Amino acid sequence: AALLNLLMIPFVTFYILKDYDRIRVIAANAIPVRHRDRILDFVGRVDLILGQYIRGQLIVSTFIAVLTAVGLSVSGVRYALVLGLTAGALNLIPYVGLTISLGIAMVVALMGAGGLAQCLKVLVVFVIVQGIEGNFLSPRVVGERVGLHPVLVMFALVVAANLWGIIGMLIAIPAAAVVNI
Taking the complete model, does pTM exceed 0.70, yes or no? Predict the structure, then answer.
């Protein structure tokens, strides 16, 4: 069933995108006339904020990719560009992405000539880059894009992580932005 659902995603996505305007009109007409303007305004603002959130996340991931690639390259780690791009792409998945990209980089470092010293360099690069991302990039870039103060972004992430784990961290900032609206 899970495989069938996975195979259906591209087809459903295609038809939704193809008939998006018609679906939008049908959904708008389903809303009672007296509430329609207010609800459509709210949905429009939520759509704008969520789009800004996604763009902010992509900007942060790009910074992570560049900083990681440069740091690993300066440290003399082979395949620094590929590892940096991997770290940036996997940065979209909180904690799990970091763990996977760090693990891959450590394996590459162990297989290289530097051995454990190279692993230590990889670890230092990841700690520095993640420190920059967690304390400066994400709260500022994503917070500004969704209209939330950086402290509120960090608070939302901590609370959602404690309540719902990784899923909570994925939805914390968009949910806080929607609540803010």
Answer: yes
